[in-house]
Amino acid sequence: MTLLQLELNGNAISVASNRGGGQFGHLALTLSGADYLAVAHEAFVTPPNPGDTPIHGEAPTAHQITESNRAFLAAKSEYKLHLAVGQALKKQLLAAVGDIYVNELAHPTLRYATVTVRDLLAHLFLTYGQITLDQLKANTTELERPWDPSEPIELLWKRVQDCRAFAELGNDPISLATTV
User: What is the pTM of this model?
Assistant: First the structure.
């Protein structure tokens, strides 16, 4: 589940957006509002649909018409990009996990058209992402497994790091003293 989240996050970040501070692309499509805010320190406001045609003020000048047309086209482009990124991420997620694990969210006729990537991820984490006591015990066993000196020491450090991160996700953190 964590790997799935990280892969989707990476793909979302890779498509630029000026929203939410402009540094995290479309990451807001894969993170909750609170999680995004914790990373970006600025809320991501979803681009609104600007409508079908630009709105010109009353008795606009040629310059005002040109400017409102430009602003409309930019807003339309941003809106379409946001939708396309969301659809692409959803398609990637569904291809990775398979319909069987999320089909209870599907509408009988619309399927996943109205379901967001965040909805799918939340469902997966809630349904399948709960860490059990047996998994935590296996994680502790993995942490305690002796190091094979024929392996690079970096593999040991990575294993320790992964075990501590897993324990943290399972709400059973491993202290630094215990790790040592």
Answer: 0.75
